[in-house]
Write a structure and sequence with these properties.
signal, about 35% helix, Phosphodiest/P_Trfase, Alkaline Phosphatase, subunit A, 4-stranded antiparallel beta sheet, Gyrase A, domain 2, binds zinc ion, single chain, about 450 residues, alpha/beta
């Protein structure tokens, strides 16, 4: 493991990586030009058909293409539970794991960013879907708040280099038909092809675009493509993981993935398809909700309720004793409904104290939920809890030339995905990461 001091993860550090990357980019471009010249010579001499041309050109590089799709909130056991025939078919032709363990907390943004950086949330910066940063004071005497998608306006919220950069900085193209924060100009760069997020974007259009990108001539074709579908999460929240509506949502995305798989297989190049989810989904009950206002938290804390946790950020004038007093008061109030994370529990969750994680973290367990007055939304399903709870486990299914066939793996951490896909694409890791290929190694073909 390449754990490192989060203090090192500063913008100058990213800048240093960027400088080094531009140097290697120049070297890789020169290499790419040479290869192209050689391929052109082959074309002229042999006058091969277009399809043969594509396969001869791609013999060296095309087997490394990766399409990474995220199905938000798709629980590890939905394939059986909701009869996802296409995902079962792809798993049979490739690799599947019994579950994919998310990072803490089991929420969308920290996990999507971990999947594309190989870093724990405390290192990539997106510690939850919403959080405050005590190093960013606001005019109102509170702190600036991150919320989902905010890095598009201010990419300094993210302190890491996403996978699309890894491809771009090594002379390849990358494309994203959505991935959380993939339209943030991190270190001044974006994927070559991208769409700004809209939940209204047509699902079929996303599949068509992904296939079209991979049908481009080699010089324009992206090595890495991502796609993202929110449907199973939205319906899972509204109706619960076991409902008929969730079954219908699974059927809809399963059909799309089956279509994508067949169309990718029909291309003249070989493509690895990797389908993951960020977290699972569990039943919650309104009768178990904990009203945050009933806890009477003093106003010298800025309070952030994310459902499974409440984070308290002490305002600047607050003393250490006041924070400790409040912890003791809340512990007495908890009566088994929630816990206040100790430093040992925070270590275990990699949620150690920093400017973003909060001075106090209260955590509840399903079917309970923290709720704020004015929040009228009734949810039957939720996530964001302790990441190792079985229901929080997500999906991993992959098939293609780099994966073994018919291999079932035990659960593994989603931090393994970044280094594994980098290896498949032949990309060097340009910065230290937290993830390491362990369990997933058993699913990869040996070179
Ligand atoms: Zn969700």
């Amino acid at each position: 493991m390449f754990f490192r001091d989060s203090a090192r993860l500063t913008i100058p550090f990213i800048g240093a990586v960027l400088t080094a990357s531009w140097l290697s980019l120049a070297a890789f471009s020169a290499h790419a030009d040479n290869k192209h010249a050689i391929n052109n010579t082959v074309v002229n001499q042999n006058a091969v058909s277009h399809k043969n041309l594509a396969s001869s050109q791609s013999a060296e590089s095309s087997k490394n293409h990766v399409v990474l799709i995220s199905l938000d909130g798709f629980r590890h056991d939905y394939i059986e539970l909701h009869n996802a025939k296409n995902l079962a078919r792809i798993a049979k032709a490739g690799v599947r794991s019994t579950s994919l363990t998310p990072v803490y907390p089991a929420n969308t943004f920290p996990n999507h960013i971990s999947i594309v950086t190989g870093l724990l949330p405390i290192h990539h910066g997106i510690v939850d879907n919403r959080f405050y940063d005590k190093l960013r004071p606001s005019k109102e005497g509170s702190y600036a708040q991150y919320s989902m998608g905010k890095a598009q306006d201010d990419s300094s919220w993210i302190t890491a280099m996403p996978r699309w950069h890894l491809a771009e900085f090594q002379g390849h193209k990358a494309a994203t038909y959505f991935w959380p924060e993939s339209d943030a100009r991190i270190a001044g760069a974006l994927p070559s092809y991208l769409y700004h997020y809209s939940k209204h974007a047509d699902y079929q259009q996303r599949i068509d675009q992904i296939v079209q990108w991979l049908s481009l001539p080699e010089a324009a074709r992206p090595l890495f493509v991502s796609g993202y579908f929110s449907l199973t999460d939205t319906v899972g929240h509204d109706e619960g993981p076991m409902s008929e509506k969730t079954k219908e949502a699974v059927a809809k995305v399963d059909k799309l993935i089956g279509q994508l798989y067949d169309r990718l297989n029909a291309l003249s190049i070989d493509v690895n398809l990797v389908v993951v989810s960020d977290h699972g989904m569990t039943n919650v009950k309104d009768s178990h909700q904990i009203m945050v206002e009933s806890l009477n938290i003093p106003d010298y804390f800025t309070v952030l309720n994310s459902g499974a946790q409440v984070r308290l950020y002490a305002k600047p004038e607050v003393t250490y004793e006041q924070i400790e007093d409040e912890k003791n008061r809340l512990r007495l109030l908890a009566e088994g409904r929630f816990i206040l994370l100790t430093s040992v529990e925070r270590d275990a969750r990699h949620a150690q104290y920093n400017a973003r994680t909060g001075d106090i973290i209260m955590e509840t367990a399903p079917p309970a939920r923290f709720k704020s007055e004015g929040d009228t939304h009734v949810s039957k399903g939720s996530h964001g809890y302790l990441n190792t709870l079985p229901d929080m486990g997500g999906l991993f299914v992959a098939s293609g030339p780099s994966f073994k066939q018919g291999k079932m793996l035990p659960a593994f951490s989603n931090l393994e995905i970044y280094p594994a896909l980098a290896e498949i694409m032949g990309l060097a890791l340009l910065a230290p990461i937290d993830g390491e290929i362990k369990v997933l190694r058993e699913g990869l073909k040996e070179e």
